[in-house]
Amino acid sequence: MAKNKKKNWYDYLWIWTIIYFALGFFNILFAWLGMIDFILPLIFAIAGGNKWFCNHMCGRGQLFWVLGRNLKCSRRKQAPAWISSTWFRYGFLAFFLTMFGTMVFQTYLVFSGAESLRKAIKLFWTFKVPWKWAYNGSIFPDWVAQFGFGFYSLMLTSTLIGLIVMALYKERTWCSFCPMGTMTQGICKIKEKRG
Amino acid sequence: MRKAVNDINRCVACGVCAKECPRDAISIFKGCYAVINHDKCVGCGICEGACPAGSVKVMEVSNGKK
Fold first, then answer.
1. Phi and psi for A30 in degrees, rounded to 5?
2. Cβ pair B30:A192 closer than 8 A
């Protein structure tokens, strides 16, 4: 953020991203809090027709900026053009939504009793990492925890991808193909066309 | 004069440019793309350095056009 500007409370939301992952490390039920990052941008886009969330509140984008710019962890080189091309952005969005759907289905399987709760997270949709310390039962049924593990996996994977592209390219390269960003911009464009 | 120019077909409307602009010359138009106010823009290029999509470029403009 430009140094001459006055900082607002929402300029510190990068701290929230760190707190979120820390909480999920100790208790997976906190992963549900990540739904805020899913629902708020959509509310802004659908009700307000803007990307105020991306522009001012996204803790993840802010974290990439803090690490990449302030702590100099980014090469700050322009990413290849295809990363922010329309087909890649919408392709990645489709992939992401498919994976989200798979995760919800997995939750359903635990809900229906067809499968039992698996206390592990999956990184990059491939690598299983044991995470059993983060859940020792609660007043909630098992599917609630299953969703937590799945959602935390998704959040961590996307942050890791973001960190990789932050290091390799510009600080907020993730933003140029972030599924939430693509979705909210798409909604805003439709709303703008309709007037 | 050199000013920042945005390619609205590439812009992802993330708002980093607006955030970084020291002169508040950039705003995000209805969540669609960044709009640069050339009356305020001094062509410093901070936005270009911040833009992750490579859509903002500082270039020679006359009367606000390329």
1. -65, -15
2. yes
| Residue A2 forms contact with B (CB below 8 Å) | yes
CB A135 within 8 A of CB A29: yes
Give SS3 for B34. strand
Q: What is the pLDDT of residues A13-65, one digit of tens each?
A: 999 999 999 999 999 999 999 999 999 999 999 999 999 999 999 999 999 99
CA distance A153 to A102: 12
Closest-CA residue of chain A to B8: A189
Q: What ipTM score was computed for the predicted complex, to two decimals?
A: 0.91
The reply to whether B21 touches chain A by the CB within 8 Å rule is yes
- Kindly determine whether residue A51 and residue B15, on different chains, have CB atoms separated by under 8 Å: yes
pLDDT-based confidence at B65, cuts 50/70/90? low
Strands A127-130 and B2-6: unpaired
Reported as a single tens digit per residue, the pLDDT across B15-37 is 999 999 999 999 999 999 999 99
| CB nearest to A1's CB, from B13, B19, B31 | B19
Whether B44 has its CB under 8 Å from any CB of chain A: the answer is no
